[in-house]
Amino acid sequence: MLILCTNDDGYFATGLGVLAEAARSAGEVRIVAPDREQSATSHSLTMHHPLRAHRVNDFTQRVDGTPTDCVALALGALLDQKPDVVLSGVNHGANMGEDVLYSGTVAGAMEATILGIPAIAFSYTGRDPEAIVKIRPLLERLITQLLSQPEFPPETLLNINIPPVETEVRGVRVTRLARRVYTGSLTRAHDPSGREYFWIGGGASEWKADEDSDFHAVKNGYISVTPLHLDLTNYKLLSGMREWGLTHE
Questions:
Q1: Which residues, listed in sequence order, are joined to residue 196 by a DSSP beta bridge?
Q2: For residue 183, pLDDT beyond 80
Q3: DSSP assignment of 234-247, as one string?
Q4: CATH classification of 2-178+209-241, choosing from 3.40.190.10, 3.40.1210.10, 3.30.230.70, 3.30.450.40?
Q5: In the beta sheet, which residues pair with residue 173?
Q6: Whose CA is closest to 113, among 153, 74, 149?
Q7: pLDDT for 4-37, tens place per residue?
Q8: Is the pLDDT of residue 202 over 80?
Q9: 63-76, pLDDT tens digit by residue?
Q10: N or C: which end of the chain has fewer CB within 10 A?
Q11: CA-to-CA distance for 223 and 170, rounded, in angstroms?
Q12: What global pTM score does this model have?
């Protein structure tokens, strides 16, 4: 089995190294990852300047682009054969609720899914990135269990969030996305020259998390596994909207 690993924290990140080591228990591993931090790049593609890939070693290549770029280049040009599965992460920080819409980690897995390759995104919810080393045995078990399934769900990626190492893991729960509301995440200020600038990030957040949600699972010591589908259509609303009488006139 050929396994492609990528991430959004950069090819040098601890989480990616741990993921690749864990994945080697299941198959041959290749790494194609960004050459720098690419968090919150979502599913962006680089289209306005050429991309360059550089070989780090026999197993790793770094790309001056986004996680989506990395997967697209790996499958289209850099690998001799298509991988059987793409693993993205391990991200330093949670990717739950609406955060999956911004996450470069999830986007790497999503690009693989679009291209027809099964994919899994991994995130560690603790604060210390070096602590990810301690979850390697857990990752090995998860990867082995997931890749042994007889059929991977089509047009679906799996988004996995792992509790902090100081938390006793109580098990695994299959979950849905929680809801997260941010407040005060936009800072408006002036630089020393008096010019106005804006800074996105920080602020406070509040979770709306039912018992079957990813946030509730992680908060209570469980690994959350959330299947994410590529089709964003609101099917419940389709029939009602057809009664709106929309017209081009």
A1: 190
A2: no
A3: -HHHHHHHTTS---
A4: 3.40.1210.10
A5: 224
A6: 153
A7: 999 999 999 999 999 999 999 999 999 999 999 9
A8: no
A9: 999 999 999 999 99
A10: C
A11: 8
A12: 0.93
Q: Which of 69-83, 167-181, 195-209 has the lowest mean pLDDT?
A: 195-209
Residue 203 has pLDDT above 80, yes or no: no
Q: Show me where the domains of the chain are located.
A: 2-178+209-241
pLDDT higher for 184 or 116? 116
Please count the residues of the chain: 249
The span from the CA of 15 to the CA of 89, in Å, is 6
Average per-residue pLDDT for the chain = 94
Rounded CA separation 117/193 (Å): 50
35 φ, ψ to 5°? -85, 0
| Token output for 214 | 């990813």
| DSSP secondary structure letters along the chain | -EEEEE-SS-TT-HHHHHHHHHHTTTSEEEEEEESS--TT-TT----SS---EEE-SSSEEEESS-HHHHHHHIIIIISSS--SEEEEEEEES---GGGGGT-HHHHHHHHHHHTT--EEEEEE-SS-GGGGGGGHHHHHHHHHHHHTSSSPPTTEEEEEEE--TTS---EEEE-B--EEEEES-EEEEE-TTS-EEEEE--SEEEEE--TTBHHHHHHTTEEEEEEEES----HHHHHHHTTS-----
Task: Give the count of beta carbons closer than 10 Å to the beta carbon of residue 153.
Answer: 12
